[in-house]
What does this fold into?
Amino acid sequence: MKEETRSTPDRGLRCQAMKVAFADGGLNSLQGLRLVIPTGSTVARAAGCDDFGVNHSTLISAPFAAVMPAGAQLATIADNDPTGWVIALKRGVLGQVSQEAFDAVPKWSRFWDPFLREAADTLGALHHAELIDAACADAFADVISVHIALRHGHCAGVAEPDMPLTHQMLTRIQAFVHEHIAEPILVEQLAVLVHMGASNFARAFKTSTGNPPHLYVTLERVKFARTMLCEEILPLVDVGARAGFQTQQHFTEVFHRYSGVTPRAFRLAHRNAGS
It folds into this structure.
């Protein structure tokens, strides 16, 4: 047993509850990238400089997560009992494929990812029930590393057949939408991101994704609202505003159209399912 401990000194350290990771700096000795996933009302701050000496400072709160270099300084904002997870991402979990994909993962990026929210909730439930050990924590870290490599680090720079927009372009658009989800988002703004005219971009986007840009943004707003409704922290009116809906009535109408129920009914159903 002692020999195994010496050969794997980071065992169980790659996936830590935020309170533990921030308190003892257990992840500071690990190299590469870290994923920060706050839960509840916790707000985390990451600060540091990139490879070019440019300073960065990012605030992260649910339902967002963020990828940071290992050397970033992490702290919470006025929270003595932070909740969430800090995960050291492993480059070689898929061999050479994931190592190349990780080169394309944008550092200092903040994004909304439903899979990561579900993973954080599962980790929280296991931790609360005292059912998570070092091996289980490492397994979660590996699965999440694979997800980050494939979902956020896809480095295809060339469009695939019948895909006029590359994965890199689509990732850039998705990141912009998530970053500005509470604001009005115009097709023209998205087109500028990939250096295209609005009409050409709209056609290319629909060909690549199956949906026109305005419908994609609307569906992302609905998904974002669902995540916040499951968090059970914000009042319904604040959920709608943070998801980018201009009025509560518009939020209710659009949410019902694409979810089949009103926001209030969705929250109640989620609450009853978890009880």
Q: What stands out?
A: The beta strands are 15-17, 33-38, 43-49, 55-61, 64-69, 73-76, 84-89, 109-112.
